[in-house]
Amino acid sequence: MLQTMNKIFTYILPVAAALLLSSCLKDMKETELFEGSKEVEVSIMLPEALEAEAKSDFKVILRNSKTGVVLTTLTDAQGVARLETEYGTYSVIVSKQIEVEGAIKILSFSQNIVLSRNDKAVEKLTAELTASNKGTIILKEVYFHVAKTPSGANYTSDQYFILYNNSEKVQYLDGIGLGTHTTYNSNAKRIYVKSWLGDDNTDPRDSVPICAFGFNFPGKGTEHPLQPGEEVVVALSAINHTSAMTTVPLNLATENTWAMWMPALKLQKTPEVPQDRWLNPYCEQGMGTMYTISRTSPTFIIYRIEGSAEEYVKDGVTLGEPGGHMISAPPTYTSKVYSIMIPKEWVYDGVEFRISESEVPRLCPEISLQSLLITSGQGSGISYIRKVDEEATAAAGHTVYQDTNDSSQDWVMIPRPTLYKGN
To answer: Is the pLDDT at 266 greater than 90, yes or no?
Structure first.
């Protein structure tokens, strides 16, 4: 009997010890591994063509992905910034605007990091900066949540964009296109969302897939000038949306409104603006009878295709082939959700909205470093607008909007769209 008991203890004690060790490791993970703080050292690396530029005064932001806490500092003369912060998951964002040969360029970088207890006294990160031109024609406002009808149903016809000349020179709308990312809503789990990423499945592709209902402004180059500080409205249903139709009445049939419409889009309202203010439908290979924009978490770009837009998309989609000017939805490339691929070099501006940090980014850092996290849903009547750059506005003599290629910093929610008749 005693021998039997010894055998039992021989088996039980190691198991108990293993369970105790596992419990201790779990406790350490929860109470030690992710509790504490660490210094983060960020060193910038300038693009080769701009190596002679000063490395000081680059804005460095650490944003905690869970709590939303933001820490900010500037780089020193050597291009180094240091911040002490608690363990956790962070977005690291680096940016600065510089003038190069009379043009404003935005130097930027973004990356996610995890800070935890390990053998590193300092977490070091090299920020390889990319350069992009500051926007001239930008998105000033996007209204997509829609409102309610007087009876309480969702009113689905009132979405619009405002384009704005944010520069000090006249710009031309001729050839400017607008597009929504094919993924529609932001999402962390849908395979077709992740399939739009690059080969390593973490970085957005260099080309942005947009809905294959392609629209751009007509004209041969200088027919539609936009003066500094001027704006135009682009509406999906360019009509006067009255209080009998919606709880957020909007007049989208004004003299500076353009219609994003074609006869095939039967579920949209026939424009009340003259036909010479209808955008040019250069591609009609999208699916459905309505141009659809996510009412919860879309991504938008404005762009200009080099050369003829009609020629760019004329070969359409070759099913089974992932490359080309147009492609079908990945990963099999055999479905009929078609997209026009817009190279990042052709993009003037972009903004991305997400509901959660865990969702997949859809724009590369040269277009938008971070998305704007939002909580409002469809039917709320809420809109989003760029923040005003007060210093630049004072110098320019007209309103200048903030443009740092960072949706999370440049954009803000407003309770009603600026075109709301009650304003």
So the answer is: no
